[in-house]
Amino acid sequence: MSSDPSASTDSVDPDEQLALELLRRTDYGRVATSMRALPFLAVARHVVVGGKILLRLHKGFGYHQACVGSVVAYGADNADVASPRDVRWTVQCIGLCEAVEPTDTELGLFGPAPRFADGEPFDPVYLRVEPQVTKVHTLRAGQDHRLQRVR
Questions:
Q1: How far apart are CA 43 and CA 46, in angstroms?
Q2: CA nearest 127: which of 59, 60, 75?
Q3: Mean predicted confidence (pLDDT) in 84-111
Q4: Domain boundaries, the chain
Q5: N or C: which end of the chain has fewer CB within 10 A?
């Protein structure tokens, strides 16, 4: 077993493992849930640890309050960075969200936090999503290029 906490996906099915590996290729995504009976999206920094998705959001927005204890969707993609010849992919994970205090190792995986959010000092809050439903979709031009797992 690897000592890298972000690499542990031993008990994950192959499709979910591919989704988690793709999430590792990008730093930010969007968390979706409802707030006051209305849907909303919020940008979040993410890392994958042990088959779960850790999120870092700005506490000052208050979005974490709507997420904690709720089923959320988290999505990320490579649409803005893929070249015309690349396979474009999108990942969506749906699962229960909980507030967490990350370990020092987990905090290190996030890297430095932004200094400001909407002109105010960035105040991080951390959430964990345990995927229950995971989908990967691809868009490609030309030949059939299958998205392959990276080892």
A1: 10
A2: 59
A3: 95
A4: 5-139
A5: C
